[in-house]
Amino acid sequence: MEQGDEKLDVIIFGASGFTGKYTIFEGIKLLDGLRWGVAGRNRDKVRQVLGEVEKKADRDLSEVPIVVADIKDPDSLRQMAERCRVVINCCGPYRFYGEPVIKACIAAGTHHVDVSGEPQYMERMQLEYHQAAQERGVYIVSACGFDSIPADLGTVYTESEFDGVVNSIETYLALDSKEPFAGGAILHYGTWESAIYGLAHANELRQLRTDLFKTRLPHFQPRLKDRPVVHKVAHPAGWWAVPFPGSDRSVVMRSQRYFYDTDKKRPIQMKAYVAFQSLLHVFGVAFVGIVFSILCRFKFGRQLLLKFPKLFSLGFTSHEGPTEHTMENSEFSIYFKGEGWDKEEKLLEPNDQYKSPPTKRILTKVSGTNPGYGATCVALLLSATTILKESNKMPGSGGVYPPGAAYAKTSLIEQLCKNGFKFEVLKRSK
Questions:
Q1: Do 47 and 402 form a contact (C-beta atoms < 8 A)?
Q2: Is residue 50 part of a domain?
């Protein structure tokens, strides 16, 4: 099938990459009933990946349309975007490859979702393309994978279950395996590369945020303070936690900013942590993190990190990525510790301050399996289909949004729960 044929509902771009391949596999089920195709710069490679997925899924994919599109060829990107209603963009690092696809989608009037965990990219896209996307009636939603659907929609879910006013939420991410770790990579090279360039350009964020948000949020009391760099937590019981360096907090706070600006809702303060079973794990990760952060500052250091990912990640990253066995046996849980006030204590204005400390608490949890790739691809696909089916429940008529702001009023959480995720309340207390 060639590019001039019937319009598709969804195109998976970057189909021959690691994430693209697993998105195709999950898409066989989640895109059932929709017209969908795949795209990449090399038709033969894309066809080869389709053949691999065919064998794994035991499904005939010979009729799946293949569209040739190349990041370096704007015309091909425009033709791809014109061919469908939503582009699922699996082609990262998005710092280098994301913007041309977004430009093509806006020009074509086509929605766009991706799995970026790169705050600089996401916030710059919001700054530069939000108005254009609104004018074209196009939704551009990043962070639709493990970074940061569980954290952002988990915050939305926690607030919906709180029945009051939430002042703050602390999240604790715990990764575990169904069986003892037997060695081998748990991250694909593409994720490693994105992290390197994200940290290297972290200094861009301050100015970006000044340009993106012309006014600062009010300082709500009580302020949520940082925990000690290393501290013990009750959930998971007995584990040790350190600050989480991923994009969860930046994504959640963008959603909270949207709710404040649009709905005049008191924003939730949020801090993100990652938990480990022992101090030995903490020290190992800290060692890698310190070396990583130092080398990221220099061009030569970044070249070393990119050339020797296995060495500098202590074997946890490779060009091949994790094996099927490793992915299928990995699990994640994010615990949300919320504090606030009962609904009877709600203030008249969102800027009003409480004169008493929080009186109510909640503990919720979002969990699932294969966070890096399986859960990521499921969340990505459902983010795309939700736009197709429930755009009337999304903000305005288009724009660039984080997932919490985009999908808060849709059934995405319900759909995630039907497809491997679990959102649950563990405890309520006063």
A1: no
A2: yes
Q: Cα(55)–Cα(261) distance, rounded to whole angstroms?
A: 49
Asked whether the beta carbons of 172 and 275 are under 8 A apart, the reply is yes
Question: CB of 162 within 8 A of CB of 338?
Answer: yes
In this structure, the number of other CB atoms found within 10 A of the CB of residue 207 comes to 9
Tell me, yes or no, whether 299 and 417 share the same domain.
Answer: yes
- One pLDDT digit (tens) per residue for the chain, 430 residues: 344 468 999 999 999 999 999 999 999 999 999 999 999 999 999 999 999 999 999 999 999 999 999 999 999 999 999 999 999 999 999 999 999 999 999 999 999 999 999 999 999 999 999 999 999 999 999 999 998 999 999 999 999 999 999 999 999 999 887 655 545 667 778 888 888 988 888 888 999 999 999 888 888 889 999 999 999 999 898 999 999 998 999 999 999 999 999 999 999 999 999 999 999 999 988 898 999 999 999 999 999 999 999 998 888 888 777 777 777 878 999 999 999 999 888 787 777 888 889 999 999 999 999 887 889 999 999 999 999 999 999 999 999 999 999 999 999 999 999 999 999 999 998 7
Closest CA to 148 of 128, 125, 171, 166: 171
Q: For residue 280, what are the contacts with CB-CB under 8 A and spacing of at least 6?
A: none
User: Collapsing DSSP states into helix, strand and coil, what is residue 342?
Assistant: strand
Token pair for 372 = 């890096």
Give the domain CATH number at 46: 3.40.50.720
> Do 80 and 175 belong together in one domain?
no
Spatial neighbors of 353 by CB under 8 A, at least 6 apart, are 220, 221, 347
**128 occurs within a structural domain:** yes
Instruction: Name the token pair of 257.
Output: 């900013």
Q: Give yes or no: residues 352 and 284 share one domain.
A: yes
The residue assigned the tokens 């319900």 is 414
User: Strand ranges (DSSP E) for 277-396?
Assistant: 317-318, 330-342, 360-369
Separation of alpha carbons 50 and 65, rounded Å: 11
Name the percent of the chain in helix, strand, coil, to the closest 5: 45, 20, 35
DSSP secondary structure, 123-153, as one string: HHHHHHHHHHHHHHT-EEE---BTTBHHHHH
Task: Specify if 2 maps to a domain.
Answer: no
The reply to whether the predicted model has a pTM over 0.90 is yes
In a domain, 1, yes or no: no
List the one residue out of 170, 351, 333, 175 whose CA is nearest residue 252: 170
Q: For 410, phi and psi rounded to 5 degrees?
A: -95, -175
